Every structure is written in structure tokens, then in C-alpha cells.
Amino acid sequence: PGLRLRSSVTLVGKTQGGPRYASSLGVADRLISETPVAVVDLETTGLYPGGDRMVELAVVRVDPGNEPALLLDTLINPRRAVSATEIHGITDEDVADAPTFDQVAGNLVAALRGCVFASYNVYFDAKFVQAELSQVGVRAFPPHLCLMYMRPMLGIGAKCTLGDACRSHGVTHQSADRAADDALASAQLWRRYAPTLAERGLRTFADLARQRAYKFTKSFNAEPLGEDVCTRLPVGTRVKPRRSVDSTAPLHQRLDQRAVALGEYWDALMSVLADLEVTQAEVRYVAEKRQSLAIVEDDIRWLH
User: Fold this and answer.
1) Backbone phi, psi, residue 98, to 5°
2) Rounded CA gap, 277 and 279, in Å?
3) CA neighbor of 151 nearest in space, from 64, 211, 66
4) What is the pLDDT of residues 238-250, one digit of tens each?
């Protein structure tokens, strides 16, 4: 389920159990434990790829046997007015001298090279990354998975915000809606899932796809970005991490208490709406968030 097997196969020999075939299935038959993963997080001016643009991008690479490494962390000038500042805390002034996406596109594809693309809400992040890459001539996109859906996929929890997942799995999460912090926390979640994958005998991406037929599992037929894509775009040297805007004060000190609450409730809404289906349990989840954060009715209407 979730995997469309290609019909082209080549007979390469025989084994005791019958013929052995060489097939091209992307990463489907690769070992999860031996495949590098690039965890991506971004902030945007809104919800619609193409019209809205990125304002911040971070990539954390998780190579087998190594600690997660932050390879890319930068604000991005969207060449339009910044909106949703109430959610992510980024202003027009912050991005005025930041690089544009085309100036860091080479850095992004270099960080993604050979990896499975992962994010906490891949249906949102992947669409924006695809839209931005297409503007610089990159049509290929790597296989991808959603760390939010890994919880129900592995039977270890329901969909929830990144902050709630981190609390559940004992992961330190510094600042919500800050791309580098969210990507680093998401990378640690991926590592937390590894023991469960091993316990359940889920060795390959095809094994994972058989758990539940989520849409992203179809991408396991694709190959990671290779040398041909990565050498097409130059790696830039001009980046602007958000810490260069304010290297000492965490996000909650730059925003008032209302903005922090709105950001957390926004994350809850995004987690519930990711698959465009809302269950009664998810309705209760956002209602509890609303109550715990003491968000007023006018703000709720605005966010919805």
C-alpha cells in the first residue's frame, strides 16, 4: 500500500528460491538505518506556495552514526512584504538584507544531496520547497516522509504539534516557529523513533510504507537528489541566521505573550488540518489548546 512498483525489471540471475531481479524502486528497498535524512523546517509569509514565499529556512542533516548537523540556517528575503509576523516573529526589517531564495538554492540542494527529505509537516514544507526550487529550474524532488505522521504510523501517539511531540518523547525544544530550532528538535524526534522501527522489524522504507498508506509513502519510489542536480546551482556564501538579528533573546522575549500563544495554537491547527480531515479527537485537541492558552474569541476567528 502506498507504493507504486515500476513494471520494468531485469533478470540478473537465480537463487535457490527462484529468479532474482534488479529493480529501480527509489529508496523503497533501502535500509532506513543506513540512509541519511535531511530534516527541513521553514517559515513563510502565508499558506499558499507560489504566491506566498519563504522567509526562513533550516536544514539539519542526520547521517547514520553521526549527531544531527545544522547545515543551513538563514532568513530569506521574499521580495514581498512579510506577513504572519504574529506567528513567526520575522519582520520586513529582519529580511531586508537577507539573501533571496535563488542565492541559497545551491546550499539547499547540497544539504539535501543523497538524503530522504523529512519535516514535521511535510505536506506543507515540501510544497513550498518544490515551488521555490522550480523557480530556479530544479524539477526533481527527493523521497520524503512526515515526522508528525510517524507517531500514528508507529502506534506511539496521535498527530500533534511539534512542541507536544517533543514533550512526549523527552526532546528539548528551544523556540517554536524558529526554523533552526524546529528542525533540530524534529531531527532528535527522528532519532527517538529509531528504536521503535527496530523493535517492529521495519528495516526498509517499503516496510514503513506497509504500516499505513499515507500519501508521502508514494515518494519512496523516487531517488534522492544526485550530483547532476547539486552541481547545477552554486553554493552561496551569504546567509543570515536569525540569531544574527538577536543573538541573545529567545523568541518569546521578542514577542509578547499573546503572540506566543497564537503561534502555539497555529501549530495545533496546522497539525490537525495537514491531511484535510478533522476527527472528533482532533477537535477536542484544538479545543483543549484554546483553553490552556486562554486565547480570546476574536483571535480564534482570525487564526481560523
Assistant:
1) -80, 160
2) 7
3) 211
4) 899 987 655 444 4
Quote the CA–CA distance of 243 and 143 in Å, as a whole number. 30
Count Cβ atoms below 10 Å from residue 132 Cβ, excluding itself. 24
Q: What are phi and psi of 9, to 5 degrees?
A: -135, 160
Q: Indicate the Cα dihedral angle 159, 146, 60, 115, nearest 10°.
A: 160
> How far out from the chain centre does Cα 229 lie?
20
Helices 179-199 and 162-169: crossing angle, nearest 10°? 50
How does DSSP assign 174-241, residue by residue? --TT-HHHHHHHHHHHHHHHHHHHHHTT--BHHHHHTT---GGGGGGGSPPP-HHHHTTSPPPS----
Cell 509513502 maps to which residue?
Answer: 217
Q: Place 170 in a pLDDT band, splitting at 50, 70 and 90.
A: very high
Q: What is the strand order of the sheet 37-44 is part of?
A: 69-75, 54-62, 37-44, 116-119, 144-146
Element (H, E) at 264: helix 257-273
Residue found by looking up cell 521495519 in the block = 202
For residue 246, give the amino acid letter.
D
Residue 6 has pLDDT above 80, yes or no: no
**Residue keyed to cell 529550474:** 137
0.85 surpassed by pTM: no
Q: Which amino acid is at 219?
A: S
Three cell numbers written together for 13: 540471475
Coil vs helix vs strand at 246: coil
Encode pLDDT of 89-128 as tens digits: 899 999 999 999 999 999 999 999 999 999 999 999 999 9
Distance CA 102, CA 116 (A): 22
> Which helix (DSSP H) or strand (DSSP E) does residue 131 occupy?
helix 122-135
The one-letter amino acid code at 112 reads L
In which element (H, E) is residue 11 found? strand 9-15
